Structures are given as C-alpha cells and as structure tokens.
Input
Amino acid sequence: MARAVTSQRKAINTIFAWSIGLLIFFPILWTILTSFKTEAQAINDPPIFFFFDWTLENYAVVQERSDYLKFLWNSIIIAGGSTLLGILIGVPAAWSMAFVPSRRTKDILLWMLSTKMLPAVGVLYPIYLLFIEMGLLDSRFGLVIVLMLINLPIIIWMLYTYFKEIPVDILEAARMDGASLRNEIMYVLTPMAIPGIASTMLLNFILAWNEAFWTLNLTAAKAAPLTAFIASYSSPEGLFFAKLSAASTMAIAPILILGWFSQKQLVRGLTFGAVK
Amino acid sequence: MGRIVLDQVSKSFGKTEVIPPLDLTIEDGEFTVFVGPSGCGKSTLLRLIAGLEDVSGGKVSIDGKEMTEVPPAKRGLSMVFQSYALYPHMSVRKNIAFPLRMAKMDKAEIKKRVEDAATVLNLTDYLSRRPGQLSGGQRQRVAIGRAIVREPSAFLFDEPLSNLDAALRVGMRLEISEMHKRLATTMIYVTHDQVEAMTMADKIVVLQAGVIEQVGSPLELYRAPRNTFVAGFIGSPKMNLLTGEEAAKHDAHTIGIRPEHITISNESGTWEGVVGVSEHLGSDSFFHVKCDGFEDPLTVRAGGELQLSYGAKVFLTPDTAHLHRFNDQGLRIE
Output
C-alpha cells in the first residue's frame, strides 16, 4: 500500500517537474517554431502551434541581409576572450582568498558581489566616456575587458568555493616538497581544481555570450556580437517576428548546443560542495 | 645532517598564546617524539619547525643556519601528514617523484631514486596507480616514499599512523623505526599515543598546553617522571597516583606507583581491597582494585595465570623501592 502511494507521488512530482521545465523552455521553443513560420502566420490570432507552412525563407532572408558569421565570430572572441582573461585573474585571486585569507577576505568577497547589485545602466555613462577617451568604442578588445570585469565577481566566487574544498594539507605537502608558489598553483592546485575551473569557464562563457546591455551599447558595426545581430531585427520600421525569431534561433543555437553537451559538467559545477 | 635548535620559539594565534617561549635541541640522527594530549601544541610545534606556521617569536635553526624566515620549500625537510596529503591527480610514481621534479633533478636520476624507494617500500607494483586506488597502508607508504626520495636533513611526521587500523599501525611503527636505523636521519614524530612514543623514540618530548613538561629517553621518563603529569601520561596502564594520608606517610603530597610494582595476594598485604574489573591479555592480567580510603581504584598487574572473580577480597603490597613521590606542586621529590 505504502509503495503505491509512493509511486503515485513520484508520478505527480514528475509531471510537476516536467511542467515547470516546459514552462521555462516554452519561450525558446516558441521562438524556434516562429522562425519557421511566415510573417503573417507569426502574428496570427489565435496562435498556430505546429500546423503552419514550414518555411526556411526567414533564415534565407536573415542570412542575405546580414553576415551571420561575422557576428558569430565576434561573439566567440568576446565571450571566449573575457572568459580566459577572467580565469587568468580569478585563479590567483581565489587562491589567495581561499588559502591565505585575511581578516578582510569575507568583506572583499561580499563587496565584489555587491558590484553585481548595481544596475549596469548606472555606470553606462562613465564607462561610455572612458571608452571614447581610450578609443575602445566598437572594439572587441574593449568588450572583452568590460565583460571580464562584469563577470569577474562570479568567477572569483565560484573558484573560491571550489578551492575551499581542496584540503590545505595537500598544498602544504607541495610546499614541503619544495614547490614554489607558481609551481604549487600550476602542478597541484590547478589540476585538482580542473572540474571547478571548467564549469566556471562554461558558465562564464554562457553569461558573456548572452550579455546584451554592454554589447549593444558599446558596439556599432565592427565588433557587434550575436546579441546585436538579434537586436538589429527588432527595427523601428515594424516588427518582423518571424525574422527576429530566425535571428534569435541562429544566435542561441551555438550556446544551446554547447550547454546541452556540457550539462553534466555544468550541473556538477553548480552543485559542487553541496553534496559530498 | 639535521641538528635542529629552537631558541625561545613561541606561537600565538591572535591573542591566544599556544606555545610560550621554549628551547629545544634535537640532535642529528635522533628520533624525537613529541607526545601529549590533543591540543597540547605538539603539531603546532612541528609546523613551526617545518615553516608551515610562522613563529611569533624566537629562532629556528637547522644545522647551524638560521631558518626562521626561510619558507618551508627551502628548509630541506620532508613531512609526512596524518591525511597522507598525496596528490590525487598524480600516479604513485609522479607523487614520489614530485619533490625531485621540483628540485629540477635530471630525469634518469629521478627514475632511479623513485624505483629504489618503491622497492624499499614494496610499492613497485603500484607505481602507475592513483592514490585513490590504494589502501590506507599503501597510501601511507607512498607518503613516506615521497618524503625519503629527496634525502632531507630531517623527517617530520605528523601523527602518520592515526588513520590506520591497529594491526597495520604496529607494522608501520616497526617499518618507520627500521627506516630510521637504516637512514640514520633526524626524525621528529608527533603522536598522542604514548605507546608509539615509548616504542619508537630515542628522545621523548612531553608537552602540555604548549609547555615542555619533560625531555628524556623513554626509560628515563618511565623511571623518573619529573612531575605528576608525565607520571600519569607515560606508561600503560597509567601509574596509580595517590594523595592524602597514604602520601603523607611517605612525606609527599602525591605518591605514584606503577601497576607492575604492586603485588596482589589473597592472604595478606599493606592495603585491603575488592576486585573490580579484570582485563586478561593472556600474558598479563590487569585488575582494578577498590581499596578502602582511596578515591580511585588501583590498577595492578599480575601474571596471566591469576584468576580473580569480581568482588573478591584481596590484599595489595606496593614495592616501596619503586615509589614515586611528588610535592604539592606536582614536582618529583628525589
């Protein structure tokens, strides 16, 4: 009897979980579906789900009108560059906070996180001016720097949590074995932290890829990544939902695929330390 | 060479003084054991010598060279940790080779040394495994292998056997002692287990609350404990300590008598008592006897053949030649 109740509950839980999952995924699904409709069907009322005339016309138009690959390349450079740079700065920073903490370490961590609480638009003006001054406007390098800075608190926090899990004994053993600080980080700490570093990089890459506020405001034609590519289809001369959807699908496809293949790593990374 | 001298070395964590200034000399080639109850500062003292903690005051010198400010990597010491602290991502071979690689030794020499160490420690078959695939005893051996390959001026052991089961511990104890005889290198060994201290040490340093209570050879400590703390700490089972009237008879505040220095009899003796718990080890038997007028039961050692039932009436006679006397500060009276 007790078993029956359990399996019933299990079924309810499963349905519940799937509904929530579907709810979250629905906008993406809708976008993908819409990208295969004609403009008329896209704004049809009531909305059409599956039974429309599937067409690739939107993709053809989008590809014709703008150079998708250029945007893609910019996205890869900006997301990849800011991630690598962030890790390069984040690893030593997190190392020192995790293994040689001072009285202020906790405060610094919180302070870093607090910068994420500030609305980005609050610093748009000064950063914009700085960009003009330094000639960084519409340059990939400038965006790499800005996105790295934006995500650095998250990188350091995540790495800090991973490093905390590594037994200090092992690092002390390395020190006793004659390893310099550089060798200790290179040969002992980093290899042990690889899973943590990998999931940090992955998450950061996704965050940087999807970042729209800064990429839209600081780029024009030259350095514009895929976010700007999408935005260019929500034009003031009228909304073209189907084409916008096609552009969006093309923009999110790479990151969706990347996320799909690395979901195991990502989940492990995000729950690391919770269960052990 | 590995003569280690601590000169007025002290350590405080914030405002708490863990180790008040102390002096200690460890001679070259000596097997020194730091022993004491948990929290007595023995591990901290070891870490100060290793350089893993900075001293709050005083000087540490190794082979006449002042090392107080020298980082652990440059002190020429090897350490074996309680948790073994092996590198989980490296094979046994790479673990053992790591200190040599850090010393930028050439590849052929590294290979030779690692294989020699593996032969000595019976690890040859496991060289390509990861630490996670080894048993506790094997991990311990790898940790020791990693310590011996680079021929340090001294070995530091931080409770290396406490994670092993009892049978393995006895075996490893012998192996470490044998290794010391063979290498004749200075070893400092931290333990809370006085049996390990007694069996392995050339010199025992008994610590309590960061203070050295006594330094001496195992038998010196056993035969002439300097105070009641050492008297109670060294020896198993513990020395019987008596205060009050009995002690006053011997002009002392406290008297101590070891279990083996009391004879037990059914007929007559100095003290009369009732047998409580008996522990039969086969070779010896220990009886806990409650005597009238004494607060705690006395522990008495007898031959393995003696059988006494719970509650039996017995007489005890202490061997006064082996009586230890202590004054009201707990210090030994000669």
Remarks:
- Chain A touches chain B through 17 residues (CB under 8 Å).
- The longest helix of chain A spans residues 2-34.
